[in-house]
Known about the structure:
This protein is of the alpha+beta class. The chain contains 7 helices and 6 strands, in the order αββββααβααβαα. Strands 1, 2, 3, 4, 5 and 6 form a 6-stranded antiparallel beta sheet that branches. The longest helix is centred in the N-terminal third of the chain and has 40 residues, at about 5-40.
Amino acid sequence: MAPVAIIVIVVAVLTGIIGGAIWAHKQKKKRQMALQAWADLRGFTYAPDEVSSLANQFPAFKALHTGSKRYAYNVMIGQTGERGIWAFDYHYETYSTDSKGNRTTHHHHFSCVVVDSGMYLKPLTIRAENFLDKMKGAFGFDDIDFESAEFSRKFWVTAEDKRWAYDVVHQGTMEFLLKGPRFALHLDGPYVAALRGNIFKPFEFDQALDLMRGVLERIPADIQAELRG
Length: 229
């Protein structure tokens, strides 16, 4: 290959790398500004910096303890009524090795919202059912079924205590969840977490909060009183 052609290729590659870095930086700043505005509107604090210790506050949520080099960023903390709220983006790494022994690092990013319910909640997961769940069901690894066939078909619900699952996910809650946006909800201890496995747009943080609030408010009053006690 002629020297001139090599130079042209090198310049093109470097230009692409630099252009990509500039674009990524602009997108990062754009998101930071949007989340700062979201936090300011609600009276929340906002910090864009990486925080590796945040997951320690929520040991029950496996998504925050997956992979290596875990940290939260774009952290927004505030309160709505008596409920503390943490909303943030999250990063972790996993690795794969090819047949030649070359290791590749995979970066994973998603958003999460955690709400302090003010109650002591038993472990419970509610999320949209997917193809792998259907495969699990075919091999006998099924979730909890409910009276609503539509809900059971669209949602995957697991809990160590089935009675607890039925107390939380009653007819009114099923109707609410069927009409709402899809988030994976995890209840455990005093906290409820909502995530999707991707980065939220600002308005999706509101959707997640509304969904968690709706589920908590629909827990029967006598059970709420017992859980607060």
